[in-house]
Amino acid sequence: MDKVRRELANSKEFVAVSEQIVEVNEAICEARPISPLTEDAPPTGPGAEKGGSSGDLQAQFASEVERLAEQAASSLAATAGPEGLAAVELAIRTAMRKLGGSLLEKLLALDTGHRSHRIDCGSAHLAEFVSYRGKTLDTVLGPIELNRAYYHCSDCASGVVPRDEELGVSHASITPGLAAMTDRVGAAVLFAKGRDLLAELARVTLSTKRVERCVEADGKAIAAAIDTYAACVATGEVVPLPPAGAILKLYVAVDGTGIPAMPADTAHRKGKGIIMIHRR
What we know:
Helix content is about 55%, strand content about 10%. The protein has helices spanning about 1-30, 45-50, 55-80, 80-110, 160-165, 175-190, 190-200, 210-235, 270-280; strands at about 120, 125-140, 140-155, 160. The chain has a four-stranded antiparallel β-sheet with strand order 1-2-3-4. Strand 2 (about 125-140) and strand 3 (about 140-155) form a beta hairpin. The chain starts with a helix and ends with a helix.
């Protein structure tokens, strides 16, 4: 009985925390209200039908979290030992991830990116609204579907998707949050190993090629930003702040020991290669 009482207390605490999460999500919804309909904005569309109101999302989220809390409390009361706790941990994570993905999808559906019948294409031309188009995004919460307003500029002969630009997913199918995680594992280990780590630790499924493309694209963007900053420093447009103290010594290091080489290439040479040969 004491154990059941403790688990019930834990359940109540979990529900209290869940209510706080709901309040945060409600604040997010209120901070991005639905744009009022105008003559240029159609009253219905994929986003409007799918999204619902922020109040509806709050009620759905609260109901699902409360149901999850009850199931978790029952599982803990019925299962003892570290195996039971591990199972409940993974079950909660899986359920909350699925619930979070559904919530994120519905929150994004509240704004399809339809601003008016015509918008600036970015090159001093007017792009006309064509239709709503779907897109699958991989997120840290799993894949979601995003419906956005698509515009076309006849002068530029190109499409414009304002919502993609606002969310930072133009010409990309991975969200910035997941891209940051992918960059971290891609910089630490081989791309294939990074793919496995994402699947094992974050339950995110990406191909090795997608991990590679994401890491290389972000790496090129960072390198371009560094080059731009260096050029601005060289021309005097940007003046970096001086160091707090005097720099007495500078070091320049070159690391080429990790370059793949055949045993014959390292024969009779000192360094990493000869050590590897001796270990064999």
